[in-house]
Amino acid sequence: MAHEILIVDDEDDIREQIAGILEDEGYQTRTAGSGEAALEAVAARLPSLVILDVWLTGSAYDGLQVLDLLKRDHPALQIVMISGHGTVDMAVNATKKGAYDFIAKPFQTDVLLHTIERALNDIKLKRENEALKTLTGGAEAELIGISNAMQEVRKTIDRVANTDSRVMITGPAGAGKSAVARLIHKRSQRDDGPFVVLNCATLDEDNFEAALFGREPNGETARMVGLLEQAHMGTLLLDEVADMPPAVQGKIVRVLHSQRFQRLGGSHWVDVNVRVLATTNRDLQEAMQAGQFREDLYYRLNVVPLTIPPLENRRDDIPLLAEHLMLRSAKSKGRAAQPLSAEAVTALQAHDWPGNVWELANVVERLLLSSQVGEMIKADSVAKAIGEDGVDVLRWERAQEVMNQPLREAREAFEREYLLFHLTRFGGNISRTAEFVEMDRAALHRKLKGLGVHNVLRGGKE
Ligand SMILES: Nc1ncnc2c1ncn2[C@@H]1O[C@H](COP(=O)(O)OP(=O)(O)OP(=O)(O)O)[C@@H](O)[C@H]1O
């Protein structure tokens, strides 16, 4: 995807000259002749980078003030300053205020191009580092699997990744839907743009629209840039899209049609260029029939349907997945990976994995942590690691305690243990737990609160 660069200079011919140079290099450009026009242009649509003249005659704001204002609202925006009267002081001041670099006029074309390239590469690196940091949360774009089902999934990815088609990824919790979405982004020409995830299951209705569309500043709150805008030139994943509140569903249909929207409290239109992918673990046909999911949104999102079967229906994938997850765990824990014996792999293949790859990842991590360095992992350790969740939480002493309580308290104690067990099993993820215990997410939240175990979720993933 071509990067879009905003050029801010009060001199028409310099603006045009820079725009010409950049367009020849394949960049898209926009121009602004004053500080005010620059602020408006950025508010209308976030560019990849801004080239900003320090001296803006006839403007209410000079370049350094514009720099301040842009950095305040968009800390990650890269800004390269230019000036005809560059002094070292000015350059130092600008970089202290957050400018990426400072170029003195008259500048050579290759200096300008090199600086821009460096700035854009830095953005990409930063994003990759962020992705790496969340590696254990599933942010890598790697898809292991040799089963027929996964080969089909991979074929579909190959076919659609490099188009702008919307893809609806369906499958049970932990099957790898987000992993597939990341791979689609990684393989697309939007690869150097952002990959932004909107988790529809965790946002409450009141904050949903602000998170998605952003908010103009008012007396109390600063401007907030929504996820839709953050995904400009990249991909937005609507994770667990069935949980999107009905009012937002209607709004997003319009955005998908027009690629523009208004921030909350705002009146101007923000144009975005975003590819949208969605995941769901619910049957959307059913949700539509129940009046919980809009038909028009369904048809807009379901351009390419892609289904990931549960792990128990593709046991061929388990050996390679286990090995991959072992390496991943070992890396994140700073330990050496431990070899799995053939019997251990067979034992892993025999289990049904209701929590799918998440559960497999948990068990593999437990095997790693409980084994001695260099020790071959055996089948009985696997059986123990799989069963351990239950033994850990529902301990016999506690069961005896429960037996001595009146029914109401015993039931509460059981419910608490039961839900904690499944929450632990699903890494603190409410949506996945709710799906497994067959409860509505909101009802599960209320139940946990009622049982006084809501706090264990703090810091847990949703
Ligand atoms: N085929 C795969 N190859 C490698 N890693 C995988 C694969 N499938 C899943 N994973 C890993 O397993 C974990 C769960 O996968 P992911 O988050 O993509 O599942 P999901 O279906 O989106 O589940 P949920 O919506 O419940 O989070 C992640 O850490 C992911 O990286």
From TrEMBL:
<dbReference type="InterPro" id="IPR027417">
    <property type="entry name" value="P-loop_NTPase"/>
</dbReference>
<dbReference type="GO" id="GO:0006355">
    <property type="term" value="P:regulation of DNA-templated transcription"/>
</dbReference>
<dbReference type="GO" id="GO:0043565">
    <property type="term" value="F:sequence-specific DNA binding"/>
</dbReference>
<keyword id="KW-0804">Transcription</keyword>
<dbReference type="InterPro" id="IPR011006">
    <property type="entry name" value="CheY-like_superfamily"/>
</dbReference>
<dbReference type="InterPro" id="IPR009057">
    <property type="entry name" value="Homeodomain-like_sf"/>
</dbReference>
<dbReference type="GO" id="GO:0005524">
    <property type="term" value="F:ATP binding"/>
</dbReference>
<feature type="domain" description="Response regulatory">
    <location>
        <begin position="4"/>
        <end position="120"/>
    </location>
</feature>
<dbReference type="InterPro" id="IPR001789">
    <property type="entry name" value="Sig_transdc_resp-reg_receiver"/>
</dbReference>
<dbReference type="InterPro" id="IPR058031">
    <property type="entry name" value="AAA_lid_NorR"/>
</dbReference>
<feature type="domain" description="Sigma-54 factor interaction">
    <location>
        <begin position="143"/>
        <end position="369"/>
    </location>
</feature>
<keyword id="KW-0902">Two-component regulatory system</keyword>
<dbReference type="GO" id="GO:0000160">
    <property type="term" value="P:phosphorelay signal transduction system"/>
</dbReference>
<protein>
    <submittedName>
        <fullName>Sigma-54-dependent Fis family transcriptional regulator</fullName>
    </submittedName>
</protein>
<dbReference type="Pfam" id="PF00072">
    <property type="entry name" value="Response_reg"/>
</dbReference>
<keyword id="KW-0067">ATP-binding</keyword>
<feature type="modified residue" description="4-aspartylphosphate">
    <location>
        <position position="53"/>
    </location>
</feature>
<dbReference type="InterPro" id="IPR002197">
    <property type="entry name" value="HTH_Fis"/>
</dbReference>
<dbReference type="InterPro" id="IPR003593">
    <property type="entry name" value="AAA+_ATPase"/>
</dbReference>
<keyword id="KW-0010">Activator</keyword>
<keyword id="KW-0805">Transcription regulation</keyword>
<dbReference type="Pfam" id="PF25601">
    <property type="entry name" value="AAA_lid_14"/>
</dbReference>
<dbReference type="InterPro" id="IPR002078">
    <property type="entry name" value="Sigma_54_int"/>
</dbReference>
<dbReference type="Pfam" id="PF02954">
    <property type="entry name" value="HTH_8"/>
</dbReference>
<dbReference type="Pfam" id="PF00158">
    <property type="entry name" value="Sigma54_activat"/>
</dbReference>
<keyword id="KW-0547">Nucleotide-binding</keyword>
<keyword id="KW-0597">Phosphoprotein</keyword>
